[in-house]
Amino acid sequence: MTTTLKPDLQVAVAPLRCAIDEEELWLDYRIDLVNRGTGAAHAVHFDVAMLNAGPEQAQQIAEFAAHPQATGRAAPVPLLAPGQGRSLTGRAALPLASAKVYVIEERPLLMPILVVAPRRAAGQANPAIIGEPAVAYMVGRSGGSGGRLAPIRADVRPKLIRDAALKPL
């Protein structure tokens, strides 16, 4: 009898703190990770980036998920047994020099995307890296019209964004 024991990583991300200063927009986040599979996940880590929202965002997210150039990395998890969960924290940043600014009603606004790409080793004895499906979130402020996120103003700096929120894409 042959059985296949495979990990199944479930990922959720929550904002902890967000701010904009003269150099960058940054977001402190918490990743909640649970292994819902039947096998252990080894050497789990996350590649994390903040990208610009826009017409090319789907392509940028897919490229990052396939070939990450991380701007941040959450601490690795050596082993995650079936049914086990873990929370990790980290920081992602979008340099304002590369940020896409949208001007709406004479206000410069930012609409960044946070992308989290989980990675794990193929097994305990196999260090080959396996990419899990990436998750992407729009980063904004809660309280927008119709339950949507409001964009982040780019002209008020430095500023702590107290109502930062994430919305899955």
Order of helices and strands: EEEHEEEEEEEEEE
Biggest sheet, open or closed, and with what strands and sense? Answer: 6 strands, antiparallel
Query: What gross morphology would you assign?
Result: elongated
* CATH C-level label: Mainly Beta
**Number of helices, counting only DSSP H or I runs of 4 residues or more:** 1
Distance between the termini: 41 Å
- Helix proportion: under 10%
Please give a quick description of this structure.
The protein is mainly β and about 170 residues long. It has one domain (about 10-169): Immunoglobulins (Immunoglobulin-like), CATH 2.60.40. It is about 5% helix and about 55% strand.
